[in-house]
Design brief:
The chain is built from 9 helices and 12 strands. Helix content is 38%, strand content 18%. The longest helix is centred in the middle third of the chain and has 20 residues. By secondary structure, it is α/β, with parallel strands linked by helices. The chain has a 6-stranded parallel sheet, with helices on both faces. A two-stranded parallel sheet has the order 6-9. Strands 7-12 form a two-stranded parallel ribbon. The relative contact order is 0.15.
Length: 279
Amino acid sequence: MKILLTGGTGFIGSYTYKELRKMGHEVQLFKGDIAKTSDWQKNLKGGETIFLIAGVRTETDIDFAVNTDSIKKLFEIAVREQKLPKRLILASSQAVYMGNVAPFNESQEPLPTTTYGQSKLLGERIAEDLCREFGIPLVIFRYSTVLGKGVREKSKMSGPLFIWTKAALNNAPMKVFQDGNQSRDYIHVGDVASANILAIDLPSGVYNVGGGESVRLIELVNWIKEASGSSSEVVILGGESSKSDPREMLSDTAKIKSYGWKTLKSAKEAVLEFVASLK
C-alpha cells in the first residue's frame, strides 16, 4: 500500500514508520512543512493513505496554523490537482476532552479548554466535512499522553515528565502542583504505533487511544525517582485544578479494543524506558 506519512521523523511518527515498513508498505515521508500549500503540492501523489501525525503544541495561534489549516491545504491541492487520497488517518488528542468529565468516550461532545485542544477539534471537524464531501474514509485517533523512549522535550506533549526527570537526575526537588493525587492517562508509544497500523483497516470514525488506567501524578514522580535512583525531595506545592490542569484525565478505549487492539506495555514501563534513555 502507498502511504504518505507526515511527522515521520518525530516521536510517534518514527515508531509508526518502522511498523509500516515491517508490514511491507511503501512509505513516503512528507518533506517540508505541512502548513505550506507548496509543500503539499510537492508531496501529494494521489491515491495514497495519508497519516497526518505531524502537529505542534504551543498554546498560540501557531497551533491552528499547523494542526488545523494544514488539513485545508492538503485538500486544496488534492482537489485542484485531482490527487485525492485513498484514506486519511488523523492524529488528534485527548486534549479535546479537557472540559469534559472523565472517563471520556467518543460519544461525548468534546469541550476543549486550551488553544491546542481547540485546534485539534477544529481540525477533526474540517477533516470530517471534507472527507464526507469527497467520499474518503477517515479515522481520527484521540491519543492520551504518549510516553516512552524518544519523547522530545520541545514537543511539550509529555507534561511535566522532562522537568521531573531532570530534577531527579540532579537530585533536585521535584515540585508537584495541587496535591499530587490528580490523575492522568498515559500510553506507551509502541502501543500507539500498533493502533496506527490498525487504522489502515478500521471503519471510519473517532477512536480513543489510551492506556486505560488512571495514574496519579505522585505515582509518576515516584516511578521517575525509582528509575533514576534519585534522592530528590518531592515538594507538594498545592493549588487548585483549572481548565488547563484538570483533576482527572482518562479515556475509555473500549471502542478500539473491540477491533482487537490492546496495550502491551504499561505506563510505568514507558516511564522507566524514558528515564533510562536519559541517564
